[in-house]
Design goal:
76% of the residues lie in helices and 0% in strands. With 71 residues, the chain is mainly alpha-helical. The protein is elongated, with a radius of gyration of 14 Å. The protein starts with a helix and ends with a helix.
Length: 71
């Protein structure tokens, strides 16, 4: 079992990730692909390339998450 301190760390990380995803979703006007790409590669890369960057890791990340959501 996790200690209370470790549990608090995980909760803060989850909340931080959720907050970042919400901010990115707002920035990219709800576009899930761009939101996920920015979460993975950074919004600077998404903005620089005008879409999902040509990084295999990012492209695979976006495809894998969307597939897990049935999209």
């Amino acid at each position: 079992a996790l200690s209370s301190a470790a549990s608090d760390v995980y909760k803060r990380q989850i909340m931080g990730g959720a907050k970042l995803l919400a901010q990115l979703s707002e920035h990219y006007q709800g576009d899930l692909s761009l939101t996920l790409a920015a979460y993975n590669a950074g919004s600077g890369a998404v903005d620089r390339y005008g879409g999902i960057p040509p990084f295999a890791e990012t492209q695979n990340f976006v495809a894998k998450i969307k597939a897990s959501l049935g999209i």
